[in-house]
Amino acid sequence: MIVLTADWIFPGKGEPLKNGFLEITDDGRIIRLTQERPTADGDEKVQVLHGIICPGLINCHCHLELSHMKGKIPEATGLPGFLKEVVKTRKAEEEDILLAMEDADREMWKNGMIAVGDISNTPASIPVKQQSLIRYHTFVEVFDLSPFRAVEVLKNGLKTERVFREAGLSASVSPHATYSVSEKLMQLLGESFSGREIPLTIHNQETPAEDEMFLKGTGTLLGFLREAAPDYEDWKATGKSALQSWIPRFPSWARTLLVHNTYSSQDDIRRAQSYCSHPWWCFCPNANRFIENKLPDIPAFIKEGASITLGTDSYASNHALSLLEEMKTIQEAWPSVSTWQILEWATGNGATFLGLTHELGSFTHGRRPGINLIQLADNNRPELKGSSLSRLF
Question: Where do the domains of the chain lie, and which CATH numbers do they carry?
Fold first, then answer.
């Protein structure tokens, strides 16, 4: 048995234990978390650490397949410009793509991540995920605006999902974005989820041009999409925001994760909260700055009691795959948001959304959730500015 103690131990939810003790097996399985100093096994096994001990971090939104695009796309292009660059630079040699994914996977493990919700368009990431120390859930992304191709598109998506599952990996089909899925395809997706306890995710309100195309039928995003796909020539505005246009078409009972939400309004949040039985929201602040130079209004989500998770997005839109850096960005922008609240988003909440609470996300007896140490700039103040992270288990 090993005993760890630190200035704070955050259990995955709620308040931390100040100067608590975490008893674990030699391979990192949790025995108990206690405020009392263990004495039965002698003090020689007590490891005194400084900073915050927390469970392994859970990255709810990543694009492993885009790892080879690191450093290839300029910042602050806006989403339409970013999408153009992705189309131009996405193609690469299979070996280069695989090696970049392996490097990204190792980086995320080193940066304290224990589970990742990953967006995939192909089975290319399967070899990396099979060998990884990280637990992956793959969201097989589908998109198409033509209702006449909806059956075929969903069939292909479900086929790719089966390939992941047959490889021993957790997976589910999900729509790409509010603007890239026909009503028919969304209807078929909803029907395919019936009776299945699987998560759903979608990119939402990442640019003001996304709302503009729904509200007015104009804007740079619609212009880009019309150049890329002839089906957008028939696009008709709804007179509502992107989220309010699409949320009624989602299965209301599904475990849905709305990603980015950079331009979601208070009214958008309230509409989604009232329609979905339990909506989830994911923020990737450093990617939002990279693409749009804008952060989502996170306090507005907190005010509405939103269930929040965090993600890194991809190397196409970020300089690092580090949830700690995402957490720092949030706290630097809104110092009133406590470290404990942000850590809950990155641990317990992520495990709950991905359906992994029986294994990960908290220091509960019998689990092996991973164990990280966040070293603080000032051990008397649990603030993330200037902190660093090391993985203990």
Answer: 2-54+368-391 (2.30.40.10), 57-321 (3.20.20.140)
